[in-house]
Structures are given as structure tokens and as C-alpha cells.
């Protein structure tokens, strides 16, 4: 697996090519009705069957690349270190360890090392974002009810 340090921002030329490619692919995807469409590589005249979901993922990659964002693809079942998980969540490693020990996120222990499934980290992050959104809505409703938004 390629590490975060090796991922580079796309160049301006790559961004421009990705933008043009994304526009073409996005409009083409709307017209595809097969689960395994064939694409043709113009330089080699080779036709390749590709799962539709893979083409949709490619479209997402092109969109992000066109905006100058670096891309990393990680298989969902990949196990990551506690440091990588902490960085993904946006917290310190000691805080992540506390979350693991409280059972907030599932993990396995290999010797002294903890390993966390990438998918479990994403699910925890999604859960936390949802809880934050609910709390913000409650605060806004409370503020509206107390008249803080009245002019």
C-alpha cells in the first residue's frame, strides 16, 4: 500500500486533463446501461470490459484530481496502525487508544500492536459527524426558541 508521504498533489496539467476527462466520463456514465461496459484504449485499439462501479470510482477520482486534491485508494478491509487511524479521525494517538479501550472502535491486537480495520475507523468517523450534526441542530433550535436569532 502506498503511504501518505508518497501521495503528491496533481500538477496543473493533470488537473486540466482530469477536468476534461471527468466531464466526458460523467456524461457517458449517464448513458451506460450495462453492468460491464467495454471501453477502448485508442492508442492500442484494445477493448476492455470494466465493472460499472469501477468506472464510477474513476469518475470520482478524476473529479477530485481536477480540484487539485491528492488521491489515495485504500481497500476497505485494510488494517491500519493506531497512528494512521488517529490521523484519519483527526485526534491524537493517545486519545484513539482510549477510544479503542472503551470499545468505541473495534480492533485486533497482534502482540503489543493494535490494528484497526479502515472500515471501522470510517464508520466511527461517520457516527461522530452524525452526532455532531444532531447536537448543532439542537443548539440552533434552542437558540431560535430563546429568541437569539430575532432582530
Question: What key phrases describe this protein's structure?
Answer:
151 residues, mainly alpha, three-stranded antiparallel beta sheet, two-stranded antiparallel ribbon, extended
Structure, described:
There is one protein chain. The protein is mainly alpha-helical and 151 residues long. The chain has helices spanning 12-29, 52-66, 82-89, 93-101, 118-145, and strands spanning 38-41, 46-49, 79-80, 108-110, 113-117. The chain folds into 2 domains: 4-66, no CATH class; 79-145. The strands form 2 sheets. Strands 3-5-4 form a 3-stranded antiparallel beta sheet. A two-stranded antiparallel sheet has the order 1-2. A hairpin with a 4-residue loop joins strand 1 (38-41) and strand 2 (46-49). Helix 1 runs antiparallel to helix 2 (52-66) and helix 3 packs across helix 4 (93-101). The chain is extended. The N and C termini lie far apart (55 Å).
Amino acid at each position: 500500500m502506498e503511504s501518505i508521504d508518497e501521495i503528491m498533489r496533481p500538477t496543473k496539467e493533470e488537473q486540466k486533463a482530469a477536468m476534461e476527462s471527468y466531464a466526458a466520463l460523467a456524461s457517458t456514465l449517464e448513458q451506460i446501461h450495462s453492468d460491464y461496459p467495454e471501453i477502448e484504449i485508442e492508442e492500442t485499439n484494445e477493448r476492455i470490459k470494466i465493472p460499472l462501479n469501477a468506472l464510477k470510482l474513476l469518475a470520482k477520482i478524476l473529479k477530485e484530481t481536477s480540484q487539485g486534491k491528492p488521491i489515495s485508494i485504500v481497500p476497505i478491509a485494510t488494517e491500519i496502525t493506531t497512528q494512521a487511524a488517529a490521523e484519519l479521525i483527526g485526534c491524537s494517538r493517545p486519545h484513539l487508544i482510549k477510544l479503542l479501550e472503551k470499545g468505541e472502535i473495534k480492533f485486533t491486537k497482534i502482540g503489543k500492536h493494535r490494528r484497526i480495520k479502515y472500515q471501522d475507523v470510517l464508520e466511527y468517523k461517520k457516527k461522530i459527524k452524525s452526532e455532531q450534526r444532531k447536537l448543532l441542530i439542537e443548539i440552533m433550535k434552542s437558540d431560535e426558541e430563546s429568541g437569539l436569532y430575532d432582530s
